Amino acid sequence: MGKINELQEINQCMVDRDDALERSLLHDGVVYYPLGGGAYTFKKNYVDYLLKQIDTHEVRISIGAQPNSSPHLGTLAVFNLAYALGYKMSVRSGFIKPEIFFEVVDTAPFETRTIEGVDYQISLRESKVADKYLEEYFEVLELLKRFTDIDYTVRRQKDFNLQPGIQRILRSVIGNRETIATILDPERGILKMRVACTACGLTDKDGVNNKYHGDSMESYCPEHGWFETSFEHEPERFEYNTPLRNLIRAIAYARDNQNEDIPFTWFRVTGSDYAGYYQEQLLYKAASTLGTPAHELPPIIYTPLITDWSGAKLSKSLYLKENAYKYLPPYLVEYAQFREQLGEQGMRKLFEEVSSWLDESHKLFRNYSVYYFMGLFGNE
Ligand SMILES: [Zn+2]
Questions:
Q1: Cα–ligand 1 centroid distance for 200 (angstroms)
Q2: What is the CA(164)–ligand 1 centre distance, in A?
């Protein structure tokens, strides 16, 4: 009897929820574009504004992703915006040669274990999960390359760390670690730099046991003990949490942009969840502490977020961990499904939509709900 009551209750909950959803989703289908903030200032010709900041013939547009799953619509929007930007820069200037630079964050955690009170991670790279999903990212890049004739380069974290000048940036971060750690980790004030144990791949996720010396760092593995890594000779082994990576990458790009011998200019395209307060507090403060003023940092173009019914961004990790978004068409949360249901034509439609955001800033300086895209792809 108790069981039946329970079931009836669950059923009623479902009916109530469906009714509420139906009521709350009623709208007139009209998109209003209030001008404000960036959209008010830039209105039209935003690409021309960006072109004025370039004095080279080549442009590198950097995008990044943690390949922990099939790319979702938010990631596809970032990739499409990078290509649309490169394409428009090339057409409007008549001479600029753009290239897309895909920075793969394969050092992001795949699995975390707590041993003796310390969090240790196994990264996407160590677990080989990165390789599994990267194929889908490459497919998206190939498709966009075909639409625009713009080449791309893929760079793993190891390759990023091997570029000239990284040692100098690492030394500067370590030398100022007390100030930098307080800015980047307001809660605990820890510099979240790490190196994976070469024997087992276990990595002190937050770098809590790290010991810093003049030009090296000592890390602790619970299985294999202490090991030392040199900034000078093995920079490729260093890994960072997101705010620290954001900082190191921005300074590396800024140095290239300031260097007259380097024939290209860096731009970044990322999701607008990193816009505003995040960069002001974590990037601009920290970079100027290390001697790179804000005006030297590479311009960042923010991609509108794709939000769920509540206005929260679609989250890849919640989709994976908590089986979320069951109410949405699967093509919104997995590229594999997007390809299956909407095909190349769907990607072309997305590219045209995203390109139009660059023509009128009121379409760029805002977010979009999943229902907007369900309307866009509705008749496929
Ligand atoms: Zn080990």
A1: 4
A2: 29
> What architecture is domain 45-108+128-178+241-376?
3-Layer(aba) Sandwich (3.40)
Q: Span 177-187, mean pLDDT?
A: 96
A 10 A CB-CB count for 242 gives 16
Q: Which of 62, 77, 25 is nearest to 316 (CA)?
A: 77
| Per-residue pLDDT tens digits for 265-290 | 999 999 999 999 999 999 999 999 99
Question: Ligand 1 centroid vs 226 CA: distance in angstroms?
Answer: 9
CA of 124 to the centre of ligand 1 (A): 16
User: Does residue 225 register a pLDDT over 90?
Assistant: yes
% the chain with pLDDT above 90: 74
Rounded Cα distance between 56 and 52, Å, is 11
198 C-alpha to ligand 1 centroid (Å): 7
Spatial separation of the C-alpha atoms in residues 171 and 215, rounded to whole Å = 7
| C-alpha neighbours within 13 Å on the C-beta side of residue 280 | 4
